[in-house]
Write a structure and sequence with these properties.
The complex is a heterodimer. Chain A has two domains: 47 residues, N-terminal domain of TfIIb (Single Sheet), CATH 2.20.25; 62 residues, CPE0013-like (CPE0013-like fold, Roll), CATH 3.10.530.10. Chain A contains two helices and nine strands; from the N terminus they run βββαββββαββ. In chain A, the strands form three sheets. Chain A has a four-stranded antiparallel sheet. Chain A has a three-stranded antiparallel sheet with strand order 1-2-3, covered by helices on one side. Chain A has a two-stranded antiparallel ribbon with strand order 4-7. Chain A starts with a strand and ends in an 11-residue tail after the last strand. Helix content of chain B is 23%, strand content 32%. Chain B contains nine helices and 28 strands. In chain B, the strands form eight sheets. A five-stranded parallel sheet of chain B has the order 5-2-1-9-20, covered by helices on one side. Chain B has a five-stranded parallel sheet with strand order 11-18-12-13-14. Chain B is globular. Classes of the chains: A alpha+beta, B alpha/beta.
């Protein structure tokens, strides 16, 4: 018996629905619906190891600038998105912060950091 | 107050910043951005998600990161800014009237003007949804500001009307913040936003996308208590008997963007009824000499990267106009949208220079061929109304082919999406 799984490729605007054919042991035996190499690579990654860049905000405690925008320093496993949100929600950032500064190290043991994506205070001193 | 300004840019969003930078780099001495908000960047600060800059910087950036890159360049070049200043009039001779709490009433007569006012969201009134008028109906962008800037959650259970990118991005954001998004409801048979947003914002979180559906009624007296959702027929009319009730306390509207052209109208700038933006030539000059336009005020772009590029072109042209006091309109050849093409920008080209045509199709299709008169043709594996098509034309090819004063752009395609 062959296992099949379908993934929508987002490599280009085409949005191919790609079916991955696997044998009993889970080895990939072929693709249906993807005729490009990049698409096949994306689909394999998406099946075995789906990752996303997660963006969020952290509290600042500053009334005039209540939230600091943040992101993961690299794409993280999809299943870690919620644990990362929960851990990030507990944090309060302290000024001054520069975009790229680490706010939470190795967040939810993802091996990615939560980093700021804006300066606080900003260029005009706002925030 | 006499203010000698070479290039005045109205709006400090991604278009205004890029236009001002380009005008300075082109040699304009004094470039002034006039912005009604209290900070630069337009909507970029509230767009905390990634996906910006892939074309422009070849890097995946968030909105605030993209903004920072442009603000730093503008400041480094000595672009001047006037914040919390509202332009209340633009006349047909480039005369700007503006007001601010700090400086009061001001008049400027810049050498050239760049319109970079961007666009605004279609509201409940513009969409026309029957029902009561309770609290809890807001546009996706307003909700984005509440959640990402102010730190408020406007509700706990949402329905999103329209599958524009901001709507899908907010569906994900609200879900990650602990809310429940019951459905995204789209009247058309295809999603309004990008594929990557459909996958990463909806599929990732199991949020249903109801195509060929609409919200037929808003329920609730003081607060939204739910919405009626129904299927629509081929004419987009509700199908009787297909209604069902979805309980929610918030209805987000993400049903399209409208270029913001009140000032353009006051100046007598000719507008295109399809794009809602100014009719422009290949230098992005409008029908009013010395008034240029770039970004979402001209056409609603799918990616901010294209906004920046178009505004740079407008900024460079404005600097050239300010320098010489004139810029010959590049308008020898009319570009006409033909089969399955909704619009093409620019509306006129010189027919001699290299130029990029930006366009959108009217419907999705596969194995599409876009033909630009007898000058160029380009094949696409698929085309969608939500994704802009860009075709680069060579000046030599244009001269050689000859255009007879008009170029029609057609798209032939097979059905399917």
């Amino acid at each position: 018996m062959e296992a099949r799984e379908t993934v929508i490729c987002i490599g280009c605007p085409l949005g191919c629905r790609v079916t991955v054919l696997q044998d009993k042991k889970g080895n990939v035996t072929g693709f249906k619906g993807a005729d490009c190499k990049q698409g096949q690579k994306y689909v394999l990654d998406e099946l075995k190891n789906p990752v996303r860049t997660l963006t969020a905000t952290v509290r600042t405690g500053d009334e005039g600038y209540p939230l600091l925008p943040v992101r993961t320093s690299r794409p993280v496993l999809k299943v870690l998105m919620r644990p990362i949100m929960r851990e990030t929600a507990k944090v309060t950032a302290r000024p001054p912060v520069k975009a790229g500064d680490v706010i939470v190290k190795n967040v939810a043991k993802s091996r990615a950091d939560i980093i700021a994506t804006a300066d606080w205070p900003g260029p005009g001193g706002e925030g | 107050m006499a203010n000698k300004v070479d290039v005045a840019v109205i709006g400090a969003g991604p278009a205004g910043l890029a236009a001002a930078i380009a005008a300075r780099e082109q040699g304009a001495e004094k470039v002034l951005i006039i912005e009604r908000a209290e900070q630069l960047g337009g909507l970029l600060p509230q767009c905390i998600h990634n996906g910006f800059g892939l074309e422009y910087f070849e890097r995946d950036m968030t909105g605030p990161e993209y903004e920072k890159a442009f603000v730093e360049r503008a400041m480094g070049l000595g672009v001047e800014t006037q914040l919390e200043t509202m332009v209340i009039d633009l006349d047909g001779e480039r005369g700007i009237t503006a007001v601010s709490r700090k400086h009061g009433y001001m008049k400027f007569k810049p050498g050239a003007v760049v319109l970079a006012m961007g666009c605004r969201e279609r509201s409940r009134g513009a969409v026309g949804i029957p029902g009561t008028r309770p609290a809890g109906v807001l546009t996706a962008g307003t909700c984005q500001r509440f959640v990402n800037i102010e730190g408020y959650m406007p509700g706990s259970r949402y329905v999103v009307l329209g599958s524009g990118d901001i709507g899908m991005i907010m569906a994900r954001r609200l879900t990650l913040e602990g809310a429940k998004v019951e459905a995204v409801v789209e009247i058309m048979p295809w999603p309004g936003g990008l594929i990557r947003n459909e996958v990463q914002c909806l599929h990732d979180f199991g949020i249903p996308l109801l195509l060929e559906h609409t919200v037929s009624f808003v329920h609730g007296e003081k607060r939204v208590e739910g919405v009626s959702v129904c299927r629509v027929d081929a004419e987009r009319r509700p199908i009787g008997g297909s209604e069902r009730f979805i309980p929610c306390d918030c209805l987000l509207i993400s049903a399209g963007l409208i270029p913001e052209n009140e000032l353009s109208r006051r100046a007598g700038v000719e507008l295109d009824p399809v794009t809602g933006g100014p009719v422009v030539d290949e230098s992005r000059q409008t029908s009013v000499p010395g008034v240029f336009a770039g970004g979402n005020v001209v056409q609603v772009h799918d990616l901010v990267d294209w906004v920046s590029r178009e505004a740079e072109l407008a900024g460079r042209s404005a600097a050239a106009f300010a320098d010489k006091g004139r810029l010959k309109p590049a308008g020898g050849v009319k570009v006409v949208p033909g089969e399955s093409i909704r619009y093409v920008v620019p509306h006129t080209i010189s027919g001699r220079e290299d130029v990029s045509l930006h366009m959108r199709v009217t419907r999705p299709g596969l194995k599409a061929t876009v033909k630009v008169g007898g000058v160029a043709s380009k094949r696409f594996r698929s085309v969608r109304p939500s994704e802009m098509i860009v075709i680069d034309l060579k000046g030599d090819a244009l001269k050689e082919a000859g255009t007879g004063g008009e170029l029609t752009v057609d798209c032939r395609m097979k059905e399917g999406d």
